[in-house]
Automatic annotation (TrEMBL):
InterPro entries reported in the protein's UniProt record: NAD(P)-bd_dom_sf (IPR036291), Sc_DH/Rdtase_CS (IPR020904), SDR_fam (IPR002347)
Keyword presence, Membrane: yes
Pfam families cross-referenced by the UniProt entry: adh_short
Species in which this protein is naturally found: Mesorhabditis belari
Name of the featured protein: Uncharacterized protein
Stated family: Belongs to the short-chain dehydrogenases/reductases (SDR) family.
Amino acid sequence: MIDLLFYFLPFWLYLLFWLTRLYWERVRLDNLHERPVLITGCDYGFAYDAAIELAKLQVPVFAACYTQDGMRKIQAEAEKIHGARLMALPLDVTDDESVERMGQIVDKECKRYGGLWAVINSAGVALNLFIDEFLTCEDYYKTMDTNLYGLKRVVNRVAKLIKQKKGRVVNVTSILARCPVAGIGPYVISKHAAGAYTDVIRKELAMFGVKVITIEPGFFRTNMSDLDRIAKENWGVWDRTKSEIKDEYGYDFVKTAIDNQALMMKMVKSETTTRVVHAYVKSVTSVYARRRYKVGFDTWFLWHPMSLLPTNLQDIIFYYMSLAIGGPPPASLLPHCSHCKLKENTDQENII
């Protein structure tokens, strides 16, 4: 019996660790009404829901929105909550002047609190999720400008306020930054860079007593993962692409790739965002907040385990996954494709 208990000792220790951490995370900070939080990207999705949840806890919230409609919507919802202190702010994280205007408002409002307790950088985009050869550097930059540089602009602008409270910086990246998949290059690269940036400033800001936290969600149902929008953008990329690249890949291959992309997202994405919202709230209200939150069923049982595998094994698994989904290879790899026939006819005409 003793031997059996000793054999399972790692399991019991791991279980004890999980139970202890769950208990620690339930311990909330005191005086939440004196700990203001800035959240970007509050027009919809994770940030919108988290801002409302924090307002219910009487946390002063600066809800930064990209659109006027987003500001009106979240302000109206907050007014339904008794005692809520939520201020909607306009913010375009890709615009230095917009970030500065937001910063001036937050500076003024935070004087009564002695600084800013936390910022949650949730603003993000997922544009042109397509094969790399069809994309331009501008496609990558547009995504990076929001998901990486926008995040940095906000952090740099409010860092002084957060140092005053010895508060927290919370950056939302993606579990796909750990396990990149084909066909969504700009998004994955921007989130990978944002994760690296977060790791760097976590070490740099620690000397000021500032805790830096990473949240890595998997696939969830949000406006960013709207399949109709993604498919429309992808066909727009196809239409603008040079004919030689179109001929190499072929219409059938691209159509199947777009359909399979939608199929994969439907298979793995969660229909509820509750777990992500809880991670947002815990990251700024828990006494013992984690340094990293990995959120989602697909995160724990697919992407995170895959990220721990050797690169060769990862590639083999992805290869057989693509075979299982099905679809034709690129047109140029087919022995009797229309591209080849066109080339053969051209060669014959040249000979004649």
